[in-house]
């Protein structure tokens, strides 16, 4: 009889994190997985490419925040990743509900399919070794195990969880039993783990069949499974996206897969591996990963470094000049600057928490805000007015809308604008403009083949983004 080959492993990429410790580059509106922090490709794209069809995997499932859906879709398309299923979380509920949704969707047609769960924001240097580890894990998963990947520790790191390994599993080369999981130990315990040689870093990657995961959730986290079942059953399809039911998913407990299943299951197994792995959890981690000059400095973007040692300096906006610093991190965006000793990299969240408490926009939003049609960025803001630059991609259409508190003036800088103003449709070219009085129903469309760039001047008593009444929207926004 011909050999029956197993179906390709289905990658499940979880892209719901906010990357707070990499502020100010990473914010809720544009988190680290959607940024090019390691190479000229975003971390999401790097993750998808190492689990691509060319490497022998099935098209991926990407679980992401609803607000990031168009960015995720566009980044995958530009990278040539086809056939992806993008599942939208109405709100973040951690990794167990996210992977449960993917497993339930797959199980509708292929319950024995093997899933490879991974975060969208990790770095892996040795791709051949990764694929060999996935092969070993997939074999163990098809035998009924919940398999994780244990990274060989290179230091007594307190920011990672640890896995204590047991005996080799019979008939499964390269796979060990798991004795115990320990979440982020103190420094003394981490040092003892590394010295003892039986512990590995917990990478957060898992491999299992859809049926196995569902059975384990049924046993160990039934409330998670029940809520996600309802969210999947009541899902809707929006363009190319799978939108989970908001009310059902919001009722789900927020819990990681480690706590919900991995630490409780009797089926846990681990594949030890040395992959050059990092979860890129801080600016210090990025310094460690990046190429350095002779003085140990990393300089990225519009920066000047003079007489510094072991510094990480990055600018995504203005010129940043750094003089005479050692073991420092300086990161600048167009609207914020962070400076600190590299040893304090894990404390960035404290800064973000203070900004949130003060209701500062910089805590969560960039000056450039992406939308399904393109993006806008604030240029100037003052009392009762603000100026924005708007870029609409070819074919992009803003919603048909009106405002209760502001009027707008649009000046076309490049491209062609089709403007609906009341019951009229106007065609504007470079250096032409239109005035939209308060309460006027209007829409902006780019009918051309190049990006449409315009300057928008807003004036009125209230200029918040929530002063938009959408009457019609092709992107399904309310």
Automatic annotation (TrEMBL):
<comment type="similarity">
    <text>Belongs to the mannose-6-phosphate isomerase type 2 family.</text>
</comment>
<dbReference type="GO" id="GO:0009298">
    <property type="term" value="P:GDP-mannose biosynthetic process"/>
</dbReference>
<dbReference type="Pfam" id="PF22640">
    <property type="entry name" value="ManC_GMP_beta-helix"/>
</dbReference>
<dbReference type="InterPro" id="IPR054566">
    <property type="entry name" value="ManC/GMP-like_b-helix"/>
</dbReference>
<dbReference type="GO" id="GO:0000271">
    <property type="term" value="P:polysaccharide biosynthetic process"/>
</dbReference>
<protein>
    <recommendedName>
        <fullName>mannose-1-phosphate guanylyltransferase</fullName>
        <ecNumber>2.7.7.13</ecNumber>
    </recommendedName>
</protein>
<feature type="domain" description="Nucleotidyl transferase">
    <location>
        <begin position="11"/>
        <end position="294"/>
    </location>
</feature>
<dbReference type="Pfam" id="PF01050">
    <property type="entry name" value="MannoseP_isomer"/>
</dbReference>
<dbReference type="Pfam" id="PF00483">
    <property type="entry name" value="NTP_transferase"/>
</dbReference>
<dbReference type="GO" id="GO:0004475">
    <property type="term" value="F:mannose-1-phosphate guanylyltransferase (GTP) activity"/>
</dbReference>
<feature type="domain" description="Mannose-6-phosphate isomerase type II C-terminal">
    <location>
        <begin position="359"/>
        <end position="473"/>
    </location>
</feature>
<dbReference type="InterPro" id="IPR051161">
    <property type="entry name" value="Mannose-6P_isomerase_type2"/>
</dbReference>
<keyword id="KW-0547">Nucleotide-binding</keyword>
<dbReference type="InterPro" id="IPR005835">
    <property type="entry name" value="NTP_transferase_dom"/>
</dbReference>
<feature type="domain" description="MannoseP isomerase/GMP-like beta-helix">
    <location>
        <begin position="302"/>
        <end position="355"/>
    </location>
</feature>
<dbReference type="InterPro" id="IPR006375">
    <property type="entry name" value="Man1P_GuaTrfase/Man6P_Isoase"/>
</dbReference>
<dbReference type="InterPro" id="IPR001538">
    <property type="entry name" value="Man6P_isomerase-2_C"/>
</dbReference>
<dbReference type="GO" id="GO:0005525">
    <property type="term" value="F:GTP binding"/>
</dbReference>
<dbReference type="GO" id="GO:0016853">
    <property type="term" value="F:isomerase activity"/>
</dbReference>
<keyword id="KW-0413">Isomerase</keyword>
<keyword id="KW-0808">Transferase</keyword>
<keyword id="KW-0548">Nucleotidyltransferase</keyword>
<keyword id="KW-0342">GTP-binding</keyword>
<dbReference type="InterPro" id="IPR049577">
    <property type="entry name" value="GMPP_N"/>
</dbReference>
């Amino acid at each position: 009889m011909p050999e029956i080959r197993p179906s390709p492993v289905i990658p499940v990429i979880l892209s719901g994190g906010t990357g707070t410790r990499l502020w100010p580059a990473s914010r809720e509106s544009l988190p680290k997985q959607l940024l090019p922090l390691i190479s000229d490709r975003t971390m999401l794209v790097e993750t998808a490419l190492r689990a691509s069809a060319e490497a022998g995997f099935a098209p991926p499932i990407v679980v992401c925040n609803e607000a990031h859906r168009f960015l995720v879709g566009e980044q995958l398309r530009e990278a040539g990743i086809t056939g992806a299923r993008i599942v939208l979380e109405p709100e973040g509920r951690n990794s167990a509900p996210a992977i449960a949704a993917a497993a339930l969707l797959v199980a509708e047609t292929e319950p024995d399919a093997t899933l490879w769960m991974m975060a969208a924001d990790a770095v892996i240097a040795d791709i051949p070794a990764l694929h060999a580890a996935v092969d070993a894990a997939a074999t163990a998963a098809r035998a009924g195990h919940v398999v994780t990947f244990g990274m060989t520790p290179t230091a007594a790191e307190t920011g990672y969880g640890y896995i204590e390994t047991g005996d080799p599993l019979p008939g499964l080369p390269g796979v060990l039993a798991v004795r115990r999981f320990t979440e982020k130990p103190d420094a003394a315990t981490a040092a003892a783990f590394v010295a003892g040689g039986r512990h590995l870093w917990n990478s957060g990657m898992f491999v299992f069949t859809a049926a196995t995961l569902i059975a384990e959730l049924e046993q160990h986290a039934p409330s998670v499974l029940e809520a996600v079942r309802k969210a999947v059953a009541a899902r809707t399809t929006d363009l190319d996206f799978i939108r989970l039911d908001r009310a059902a998913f919001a009722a789900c407990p927020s819990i990681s897969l480690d706590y919900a299943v991995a630490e409780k299951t009797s089926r846990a197994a681990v594949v030890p591996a040395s992959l050059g792995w990092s979860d890129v959890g801080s600016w210090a981690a990025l310094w460690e990963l990046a190429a350095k000059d002779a003085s140990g400095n990393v300089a990225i973007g519009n920066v000047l470094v003079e007489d510094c040692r072991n510094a990480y300096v990055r600018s995504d906006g203005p010129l940043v000049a750094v003089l005479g610093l050692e073991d420092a991190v300086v990161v600048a965006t167009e609207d914020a600057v962070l400076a600190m000793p590299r040893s304090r990299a894990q404390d960035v969240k404290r800064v973000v928490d203070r900004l949130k408490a003060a209701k500062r926009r910089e805590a969560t939003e960039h000056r450039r805000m992406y939308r399904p049609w393109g993006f806008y960025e604030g240029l100037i803001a003052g009392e009762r007015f603000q100026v924005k630059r708007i870029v609409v991609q070819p074919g992009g259409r803003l919603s048909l809308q009106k405002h209760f508190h502001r009027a707008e003036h649009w000046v076309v800088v490049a491209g062609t604008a089709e403007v609906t103003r009341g019951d009229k449709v106007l065609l504007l070219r470079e250096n032409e403009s239109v005035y939209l009085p308060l309460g006027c129903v209007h829409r902006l469309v780019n009918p051309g083949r190049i990006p449409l760039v315009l300057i928008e001047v807003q004036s009125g008593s209230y200029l918040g983004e929530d002063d938009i009444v959408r009457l019609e929207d092709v992107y399904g926004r309310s």
